[in-house]
Amino acid sequence: MASSYPEVYYSNTIKTLFEAVPPFRPKPSFPPRPDKGGSCLFGALLIGGIICIIFGLASLANEEEAASVLLLGGLASVVVSIIATNISNNAVENKYKNSPEVRHYYESLARWEKERALELTSERLKEHRKRCFEEMGEFVYDPHVYLDISSRNEAIKKGASEDLLLEELLDFKDFFSIHGPLHLSFPRCSYYPDLVISDKENKILIAIEIDEPYTLEDHTPIHYLNEDGISVDGGRNDIFTSHGFCVIRFSEEQIIRNRTKCAMYILQILNYIRNGENTLPEPLPGLVQKKWTYEDAKRLADARHRESYLPSSAKTDLNVRIEDITVDKNTIIHRREHAAPEDDLPF
Question: Is residue 289 within 8 Å of 253, Cβ to Cβ?
């Protein structure tokens, strides 16, 4: 669990692709072991010894001398059979370990591991992952799950910084498409991501989430780390990633103060995924911000921290309807006027 912003969570699909390795010839098989089992003589000796012990115990009450002989003979037979079996098995195992078949196996295994290591260089792994992305089929989504709010006239809760990031992201319209607002209606829950970015060619979907430390209305702490250092948004992240979305989380303050760096970081993530990089890029200098706990959020609320950096227009009522956000929608259409019609939604 990340302890600072920006946070990045790859979708389950992409994590699976990142674990893919190039195919290679099968690993050499270990030669079959010989059947140790011991000889029939040792087995018969063991069984005979056990029978003698049983009869000896049964005869103790009547014939003490005969019973003692049977017990001692039975115990001796059992001990001798066990020792002899172990000696025989060890001899077979040593002969097997030194056999030409085993020596040939280890030589073949060493060659296989060396050649496999050459196949698993970082560059070859990246090339293989890139091919996996290219061969991956189109995402298939239920249109009743991924709903365009603009066609439903839904009321939404709009944060103060989405417009700023959206404006910055439009400069990268040749690298990806921007969608929203969207209503993601999953089984037993539904969410409204702040922004959704899609790279249809590479089948990549990213939900952009912008976190505030507290609400402006009543200063309630939100998006905090609990006492165990786990984000209260963990369940939301899991829902997104299990349905094909990567998640990138920024703090609101990062967007307000460093929106260009935030947009560049999103572009870095996209490029890393496209290029088969399974490591996360380092955020640009000055972009990292520590996440807050519940108590931290209360202190920030008491100090009116959000009010210190938010534009004055953002400090009013944030409950808006989609028809009131005409600038964003028209700007997207204007800036993407050369895009193909089917790019309106990634689904």
Answer: yes
Return the domain boundaries, the chain.
4-21+141-344, 40-119
Return the pLDDT at 329: 29
For residue 117, what pLDDT is reported?
Answer: 86
Roughly what angle, to the nearest 10 degrees, separates helices 252-274 and 122-135? 90
pLDDT of residue 178: 84
What confidence score (pLDDT) does residue 158 get?
66
Number of residues in the chain: 347
User: Is the bond into 6 cis (omega within 30 degrees of 0)?
Assistant: yes
Strand partners, 147: 183
Q: Mean pLDDT, consecutive 10-residue segments, the chain of 347 residues?
A: 87 85 85 63 58 58 59 64 70 76 86 86 82 66 51 59 89 80 77 85 85 93 93 93 91 94 93 83 90 96 93 48 29 30 31
Residue 101's Cβ-count burial label (10 Å; 0-12, 13-18, 19+) is: exposed
Residue 217 C-alpha from the chain's centroid: 36
- What pLDDT was estimated at residue 27? 87
Q: What's the rounded Cα separation, in Å, for the pair 269 and 165?
A: 16
What pLDDT, on a 0 to 100 scale, did the predictor assign at position 319?
35
Structure-token pair, residue 21:
């390795």
CA 206 to chain centre: 15
Whole-angstrom distance, CA of residue 206 vs CA of residue 271? 13
